Amino acid sequence: MPRLFTGIEIPAEIGDRLSLLRGGLPGARWIDRENYHLTLRFVGDVDRDVAEDIADALGRVGRSGFEVVIEGLGALGSKKPHSLVARVRPNRALVELQAEHERLMQRIGLPAEQRKYTPHVTLARLRGASERDIANYLSLRGGFSTEPFPVERFVLFSSRNSVGGGPYVVEEEYALRPAARAEDRGRAHGNATWL
User: Fold this and answer.
1) Kindly report the CA angle at 39 between 34 and 42, in degrees rounded to 5?
2) How many whole angstroms separate alpha carbon 152 and alpha carbon 141?
């Protein structure tokens, strides 16, 4: 049975910058740069028929591309931090794409995701890292940010059961429509004719 999730790949140059954040945190198991991604919807282990249904349903997504900004670092885990992450600034297009993936998975018959969607890129899994060490790490590097980068597609990933995540394999890719440029959007709105 494949273990699947949908996501957005991180461009190589952004991945290179994120990889420079590795180190300096005892108890962190760092994710390899080639496995950085932004999860949209975790699916889990499914049989081949369900996997094919998922791949087909995702092909019907007809959204436009958009931009993403990584802004700040943080730790996930309410009682005990379990992951060090780069936060992704939420934007309407990203949230709507994720919500559509959620609706599609539920239509296929998968249970609803119980956790609130928090867009992020996992940098490390934390095991045995003290809260003080995490706080010190974040105080030194927490202001990390990137320029906006374009999202022109999303993918269906599979993962192998391993320690620390990855390797992730792109099983299918789905192009988004070209994003309208700001000047084109302005022209479209500015030329409206009211009758």
Assistant:
1) 120
2) 29
Residue 57 is encoded by which pair of tokens? 């349903």
Report whether the peptide linkage leading into residue 150 is cis, meaning its omega lies within 30 degrees of zero: no
The DSSP bridge partners found for residue 70 are: 88
* pTM over the 0.85 mark: yes
As for how many domains the chain has, the answer is: 1
pLDDT tens-place string over residues 28-72: 999 999 999 999 999 999 999 999 999 999 999 999 999 999 999
CATH number, position 86: 3.90.1140.10
Which residues touch 24 (CB under 8 Å, ≥6 apart)? 137, 140, 141
Instruction: Please check the confidence at residue 182 and state whether its pLDDT lies above 70.
Output: no
Q: How far is CA 106 from CA 22, 57, 151, in A?
A: 37, 11, 24
DSSP-assigned letter for residue 153: E
pLDDT over threshold 50, residue 18:
yes
